[in-house]
Every structure is written in structure tokens, then in C-alpha cells.
Amino acid sequence: MPSYLLKGGIVATFTKENEARAFKADVLVVDSIIDQIGEDLAVPDGAEVFDCTNKWITPGFIDTHR
């Protein structure tokens, strides 16, 4: 079960009211599913860490320009 920790990115999401919001956070992905989003998440054993400083993380978004 592969795990990835995306550290320090800018997470873009929408609220239930369909309002956009962006915030700095870490994203933990376990077995292709987002497990946690938060600040300064601990690195699980065996997780691969990616430095996402100043990079956008857009969970669930699809880039249709590719």
C-alpha cells in the first residue's frame, strides 16, 4: 500500500457552498486515496515525501488542457 506525503503545498478546494478556497497544507495519500489534509502532518513509515512548496495541489480537479 504506497503512501505519499505532499508537503507545504497550496491546496485549492471548494466548500459545500461552492466557494473556492486556498490554504497552505500537507496532503497524505494512502493507497491512492486522500487520507489527511492538514498542517505539519507526520511522515508515516515508508511514505515517499514530495516538497510541494509554492506548488498548487488541486484534489479532484481534472486538467482538460492536456
Describe the structure.
The chain has 66 residues and is mainly beta. The protein is 0% helix and 53% strand. The protein contains no helices and 5 strands. It has strands at residues 3-14, 20-30, 33-38, 48-51, 56-57. Strands 1, 2, 3, 4 and 5 form a 5-stranded mixed sheet that branches. A hairpin with a 2-residue loop joins β2 (20-30) and β3. The protein is globular. The mean pLDDT is 90.
Largest sheet: 5 strands, mixed
Strand proportion? over 45%
**Helicity range of the residues?**
under 10%
Rg, please?
12 Å
Query: Given the C-alpha coordinates, what overall shape results?
Result: globular
How many beta-strand segments? Answer: 5
Spell out the helices and strands N to C.
EEEEE
Q: Which whole number gives the mean pLDDT?
A: 90
| Straight-line N-to-C gap | 28 Å
Low-confidence stretches: none
Structural class: mainly beta
* Helix run count: 0
How do the helices and strands line up, and which of them pair or pack?
Layout: E1 3-14, E2 20-30, E3 33-38, E4 48-51, E5 56-57
Parallel strand pairs: 1-4, 1-5
Antiparallel strand pairs: 1-2, 2-3
